[in-house]
Every structure is written in structure tokens, then in C-alpha cells.
Design a protein that fits this description.
This protein has 479 residues and is an alpha+beta fold. The protein has four domains: 104 residues, Beta-Lactamase (2-Layer Sandwich); 119 residues, 2-Layer Sandwich (Beta-Lactamase), CATH 3.30.450.20; 85 residues, Helix Hairpins (Orthogonal Bundle), CATH 1.10.287; 154 residues, Heat Shock Protein 90. The chain is 43% helix and 23% strand. The chain has 14 helices and 17 strands. The strands form four sheets. It has a five-stranded antiparallel β-sheet. Helix 10 packs antiparallel against helix 11, helix 12 crosses helix 13 and helix 13 runs antiparallel to helix 14. The longest helix has 52 residues. The chain is rod-shaped. Adenosine-5'-triphosphate binds next to helix 13 and helix 14. The site of adenosine-5'-triphosphate has 20 residues, from helix 13 and helix 14.
């Protein structure tokens, strides 16, 4: 039972609804109407036939839905349900003495249903679009709680979607104060307009702690002018940066090779010109020394002889440097050549407190190469390492066969001070040396570079994170 008051309210509600609400009897007579309907069709609509009121005709409409619905026992059962079509909803007024009166409401509930369905479909489509996007998409609310985390984001960062949504804060994905920095830039005008950040390079932290460089396009999401969330589209830059680095390395190698070729020609010319007069100086000094001369003159002559011999050595190095095609028709085993270089050097006092650790790959494929030249390369690198470590430390030598690249990789790492970053680009230049006079001419690495290049290989130098220099040589294995 409802109270009088309640009844009063319900009537008021029915009359306040800005929709036509009309009750029609099985004889198609309007038996009740709310104020909204009466405002349109007149106060006197109640008591009239519906077709008269609505269409001003004297006979029922040919396709009257109410007749169709009331027609026949079977159909009457349907009256328990709503009948809906464009713009109109009909339903039976149950529990009154006017059974089966019909309520006509000029409101298409199905339309709402259809709109909802459309909305649902478009939401699902957008959702799938975001989830399957190539770029990582991450959105978070103002508190940092992540609510969008797509497959690409999972792939880059290693978090499963559920994990990211439930237990990761957006700030955890940036190293240090990175998230705050991104927000600051997002709110400023300078990086794509306020609320936008375009093509910004930033680092993210993956689940395993790896730092991932990405390009970020982000924006703040506003609702009625209030900031409610941020959404970011991240592109993994690891491949791009790797390619850029390789390109830069290739460019540097090319630059280095052309420089070497020019210097090589020059060096060969100078060396040849110097060779004959030097041989003359040596020969005549030796002849003079056989004469019966004053001791102090002999001492001076010995000095001349020593210096001339040093000049001859440098000329020999220069000729070595400019040598192009050589004996590369033999198959050689790099492990054995390194062993030979060590054997030749280890008796020297400089190696007394140096430990050499060999980590060779057994059964390493042989390569076509010049044994003498490769020996020269390895001896130079080993000698440099011993000099850098000032006779005390560890030199690790590793050889490896990279099957997929058909290449042999040789790595020399020492525990010396490393190569200062500012001179790293110059160490392969001829006559570049940081050593005292008499300790180095600066030809060792430039010759090594030319020899490795002549074997179709590559040589790089870098510093280890924990100190010490590494030299890496890649030599192709001929088919
Ligand atoms: N293992 C190393 N650690 C630190 N610096 C190195 C190392 N190897 C080479 N260098 C640097 O590279 C420079 C060039 O080396 P390179 O072998 O070409 O010439 P050098 O050793 O100075 O003289 P040379 O080899 O002609 O006697 C060196 O002077 C040194 O500064
Ligand atoms: Mg050297």
C-alpha cells in the first residue's frame, strides 16, 4: 500500500516528466494523460480515441500496434514485455481494472540501448586499438596509479598488465626524479604547448632494472578544465640508437681508413727516401769505428750509430705501416699466434708482475691471414697493455668464434688506467702517442689498424666500466 503523500508525489513525478505519458484502453480510448501530453494535445484529449487525438482521423490506423499487440491469445502474452520501436515505448498497465490498457511513452528506450551498444563497441574498439598499438601506451591518474598499460608497454618494460595496473606507480617507471621532470615539461609551453610533450627523449626503468631509452609523446588529459590524468606514447629507441651507433662507427672507420691510406702513401715515400741515406750513415759510422780513433770520438760515433739505428727502426715501422697486400694465403690459428706473441714478450722484465689470463675458444676455425702481420698486431696491443699497467696487473685475452657472423672476436682487456676519453678517437692515428720520447713513436696501433683492415676485419678500443682498456678485434673467417 502506498500512502496518500506517496501517491501525490508519484502523480507529480508523472506530470513533471517532459515526455508524453498516455494510457490507452483496448478500445483505443485515451483514459489518462500526463500534463506534458495535455499541453500538446489539449486538456480534452482524455476520453477521445487515440487516432483522433494523434492523427485527426476517424478510424484506427491500418497498422495500429496496440491492436496488433492485443490481437489473439498468443500475442497477449507478449504484453508482459515492453514493446519498443522508433520513438515509442508501449507497455501494459498491469494491476488495474483497466487490464489490458496500454501505456504509451514517447521515448525510445531501445535507442538508449542502441547508443549504449554503439558506445560499448566504440569503447572496445578504442581499448583494443590501444592494447595492440605498436608504441607503448601508458596512462596514469593524478595520483600516479596506472590505468592503461598496453602489450607494447609490457614488452618493453617486462611488467604484466595486471601487475602494472595493480602494483606499479608511474613514478617507478622513471629513473630518479624523471616523472616529475616529465610533468614539469608537460605543463610548460616549450615542449609542444601546455599539456603536451612532443618527441622527447627520456629513459624508463624496466622491471629488471634495465634502463630503456624511449621517445615520448605525452599529453595531460583534462576534464572540464581540470587535470585528471596523463597519457604517454613511448617508442623504444634501443634499435634506433644501436643503428645510429653502428652508423657512426662505420663513418669513423671510413674516415680512419681514408686518413690511413693518405698517410700510408706519404709514409712509404718518406721511408724509401730516408732508407738509403740512413744505410749510408750506418755503414760509414761502422767503418769509422774500425779505425784507430780517440776514445771520446769513438763514444760519439757509437751515439751516432745508436741514433741512426733507431731511425732505421722507425723507417722499418713506416714501411710496415704502408705495406698493403701481403702473404695472406695461409690458414692461421689466432690462438697460436697470440701464444707466440706472448712467448716473445713474457721474458721481458716489464712482464714480470703481469698475469696473463688466456680464455681461448678451442677448435677455433683457422683464418686466411699473414702470420707475421697478425703477430705484429697482437704484440703491439700486449706491449701497450703492459706499458699502461706499468708492469703490474692482469691482462685477459679472450678468443671467440661467432658462428652467425662467421667472425673471430679477440678481446684484450687490461687493468691499467684506461684510455682517456678525449684521446680515444685519436689512438689509431699514426704518430699519436702519449708516451715519453723513446718509449713510443705512436705507430703501434695505426699499423695494427691497417693490418686488421687488410684482413677484412675491424679493431675498436673502449674502456671497461670498472677501469682498464679493452681492444677488440673482429676477423672474418674466409669461406
Ligand atoms: N692499453 C692501453 N691503455 C691505455 N692507453 C693505451 C693503451 N694502448 C694504447 N694506449 C694509448 O694509445 C696511444 C697510441 O698507442 P700506439 O701503440 O699507437 O703508440 P705508442 O704505444 O704510444 O707508441 P709505439 O706503439 O709506436 O711504440 C698510446 O700512446 C696510449 O696513450
Ligand atoms: Mg704501442
Amino acid at each position: 500500500m502506498i500512502s496518500e503523500k506517496e501517491r501525490e508525489y508519484l502523480v507529480a513525478i508523472v506530470n513533471s516528466i517532459p515526455r508524453e505519458l498516455v494510457v490507452i484502453s483496448p478500445e483505443l480510448r485515451i483514459v489518462a494523460a500526463n500534463d506534458f501530453a495535455k499541453d500538446i494535445y489539449g486538456e480534452d484529449m482524455v476520453g477521445k480515441k487515440c487516432y483522433q487525438v494523434y492523427y485527426g482521423i476517424d478510424t484506427p490506423c491500418s497498422k495500429c500496434k496496440i491492436i496488433q499487440l492485443l490481437d489473439g491469445e498468443e500475442k497477449r502474452k507478449d504484453l508482459k514485455n515492453l514493446y519498443m520501436e522508433e520513438e515509442v515505448t508501449l507497455f501494459p498497465l498491469v494491476g488495474t481494472d483497466c487490464d489490458p490498457c496500454m501505456v504509451k511513452l514517447d521515448f525510445d528506450i531501445t535507442k538508449i540501448g542502441k547508443l549504449e551498444k554503439k558506445l560499448y563497441l566504440s569503447n572496445t574498439f578504442l581499448h583494443n586499438l590501444i592494447l595492440s598499438a605498436v608504441d607503448a601506451v601508458i596512462a596514469a591518474d593524478k595520483k600516479g596509479k596506472i590505468f592503461i598499460f598496453n602489450d607494447a608497454a609490457s614488452k618493453i618494460l617486462g611488467y604484466k598488465r595486471e601487475e602494472a595496473l595493480n602494483s606499479v606507480d608511474i613514478r617507478d617507471l622513471y629513473p630518479g626524479d624523471g616523472a616529475r621532470d616529465v610533468m614539469k615539461k608537460l605543463r610548460s609551453k616549450e615542449y609542444g604547448g601546455p599539456g603536451k610533450l612532443k618527441s622527447y627523449r627520456v629513459n624508463l626503468v624496466a622491471k629488471n632494472g634495465e634502463i630503456i631509452p624511449v621517445e615520448l609523446n605525452a599529453s595531460i588529459v583534462y576534464e572540464n578544465g581540470v587535470e585528471v590524468a596523463t597519457i604517454g606514447f613511448f617508442r623504444d629507441l634501443r634499435e634506433t640508437l644501436k643503428m645510429e651507433k653502428e652508423l657512426e662507427e662505420t663513418r669513423m672507420q671510413l674516415y680512419q681508413s681514408s686518413k690511413m691510406a693518405a698517410i700510408g702513401n706519404l709514409a712509404a715515400g718518406v721511408a724509401h727516401q730516408l732508407n738509403n741515406p740512413l744505410s749510408g750513415i750506418l755503414l760509414f759510422t761502422e767503418l769509422l769505428l774500425e779505425e784507430d780513433l780517440d776514445e771520446h770520438i769513438k763514444e760519439d760515433l757509437i751515439r751516432i750509430l745508436e741514433n741512426a739505428r733507431r731511425c732505421k727502426d722507425i723507417v722499418k715501422e713506416l714501411l710496415e705501416f704502408s705495406r698493403r697486400s701481403n702473404n695472406k694465403d695461409y690458414f692461421v690459428n689466432v690462438n697460436k699466434i697470440i701464444d707466440r706473441a706472448i712467448f716473445l714478450l713474457e721474458k721481458h722484465p716489464l712482464f714480470k708482475s703481469i698475469e696473463i689470463i688466456r680464455d681461448y675458444t678451442d677448435n677455433i676455425p683457422e683464418i686466411k691471414g699473414d702470420l707475421q702481420q697478425l703477430n705484429h698486431v697482437f704484440m703491439n696491443i700486449i706491449w701497450n697493455a703492459a706499458q699502461a699497467m706499468e708492469g703490474k696487473g692482469v691482462l685477459s685475452i679472450k678468443t671467440n668464434f661467432l658462428k652467425d657472423k662467421n667472425t673471430i672476436k679477440i678481446l684484450f682487456c687490461d687493468t691499467g688506467p684506461g684510455i682517456p676519453e678525449d684521446i680515444l678517437p685519436n689512438i689509431f692515428d699514426p704518430f699519436f702517442s702519449t708516451k715519453k720520447q723513446g718509449e713510443g713513436v705512436g705507430l703501434g696501433l695505426s699499423i695494427a689498424y691497417r693490418i686488421v683492415e687488410g684482413h677484412g676485419g675491424k679493431i675498436f678500443a673502449y674502456n671497461k666500466k670498472d677501469g682498464g682498456a679493452c681492444f677488440e678485434i673482429d676477423l672474418p673467417v674466409s669461406q
